[in-house]
Amino acid sequence: AIGPVITTTFVLFVFSYVAGNSKLSHYLFLPYVPGVGELAIVCAGVMGASLAFLWFNAYPADVFMGDVGSQSLGALLGTIAVMIKQEFVLAIAGGIFVVETLSVIIQRAYFKYTKKKFGQGKRIFKMAPLHHHFEKLGWEEPKITVRFWIISIILALLALSMLKIR
Predict the structure, then answer these.
(1) Is the pLDDT of residue 162 over 70?
(2) Which residue intervals of the chain are DSSP H helices?
């Protein structure tokens, strides 16, 4: 999760800086929100802490982030996106998180539906969330991680391109 957190936080860093600057926000047709430029400092801190976590916890991982870390980072990203009025940008930049969540929702809904209709639940994925499905297909953990990072970088670039495509 830490790679996509870094790329998503970078996108929010740029958008929060722009939203807090009246001239840039006017030029790029973003809503100006007084004071939210300070969130760029928070984003920089999160990126720095995330890079430090990654530096000392690269593969093979010694300590896993867990729910406390991942959910608090997700809440922080969501809060920043709401404050700078860029929720849609967060959905794009954090697309990995959206797809992972949707894979769980789809798996559970399909299982419950087939259990009710046929008496036995069926699965779409071998295991949810999606990264576990790829593990069950025989992919190595570093391969899944790097590919998710690559997709996250592409989504971050797509989100950043929305600065002027308005």
Answers:
(1) yes
(2) 2-19, 22-27, 39-56, 66-83, 87-93, 95-118, 130-136, 141-161
